[in-house]
Design a protein that fits this description.
Order of helices and strands: EEHEHHHEEHEEHHEHEHHHH
Shape: globular
Radius of gyration: 19 Å
Number of strands: 9
CATH class of the largest domain: Alpha Beta
CATH architecture of the largest domain: Alpha-Beta Complex
Distance between the termini: 31 Å
CATH topology of the largest domain: 2-enoyl-CoA Hydratase, Chain A, domain 1
Strand content: 15-25%
Number of helices: 12
């Protein structure tokens, strides 16, 4: 990975920081690639139990770097479109969505365009009081990625999602909390502390059960009641055999804090 993305692993929490503050963390092809690799690394690393994604400086992510990704296509539009557009999810977005560890977006400032989609692809969103959100794709003659068209309706409801997608309006952190787009809003100086507090609670829980819990949430978006029942039965059948389940039960009986080892 390059210096435009920072990756830190401390106490089972991987912090991924978009690091182009001079460009409000706008995404270049290189930064998209770095983000994909960071999320794939977090997915496969057994030491990682939770991921925080945030931005350096005053912005979370201002979306695509227009000069490179959009205007650059005009130099040879046909060739670039054939090369860059594929009938599949954006690789970086897929890496975030497919990560089997819980992912928290610590939205420190504006999250617009693909920046808002990136926040939506995370499991939990904590916002600074300086955050703003906007699905600006319609303003550029484009459609949103999976964050906007797949996740947003499930998060805020189809009517509010349609309003945000069709107008391209930008909303502040207070409105984002009101409509359920973010879990909470905190002062800017407290954002990473609040995100790490949640991440620590998650990291202290049994990682195998956490992976099954996250997969269950993913399946619940499309599965029927019978399909979910089958998944839950299968998951419990395995989880009852784990050392972590035994530790959870013993710690309750012995009135102590559990220590989970991911076994």
């Amino acid at each position: 990975m390059s210096d435009i993305l920072k990756y830190d692993l401390t106490d089972h929490i991987a912090t991924v920081t978009l690091n182009r503050p001079e460009a409000m963390n706008a995404l270049t092809r290189e930064l998209y690639g770095d983000l994909e690799r960071a999320m794939r690394d977090a997915h496969t690393d057994p030491e990682v139990r939770c991921v925080i994604i945030t931005g350096e400086g005053r912005a979370f992510c201002s979306g695509d770097d227009v000069k490179q990704i959009m205007l650059g296509e005009q130099r040879d539009e046909t060739t670039r479109r054939l090369r860059d557009v594929r009938p599949r999810p954006t690789p970086a977005g897929a890496a975030v969505l497919e990560c089997d560890k819980p992912v928290i977006a610590a939205v420190n400032g504006p999250a617009v365009g693909w920046g808002m989609d990136l926040a939506l692809m995370c499991d939990i969103r904590i916002a600074s009081d300086r955050a703003k959100f906007g699905e600006l794709f319609i303003k550029r003659g484009l459609v949103a990625d999976l964050g906007g068209l797949w996740r947003l309706p499930a998060v805020v409801g189809p009517s509010k999602a349609a309003e945000l997608l069709f107008t391209g309006d930008v909303i502040d952190a207070v409105e984002a909390e009101r409509i359920g787009l973010v879990s909470r809003v905190v002062p800017a100086d407290d954002l990473l502390t609040a995100a790490r507090e949640i991440a620590t609670k998650i990291a202290n829980n049994p990682p195998i059960a956490m992976r099954y819990m996250k997969e269950g949430l993913r399946k619940s978006r499309l599965a029927s009641m019978d399909e979910m029942g089958a998944y839950i039965g299968s998951a419990l059948g395995y989880l009852f055999t784990t050392e972590d389940h035994r530790e959870g039960a013993l710690s309750f009986v012995e009135r102590r804090e559990p220590v989970f080892k991911g076994r």
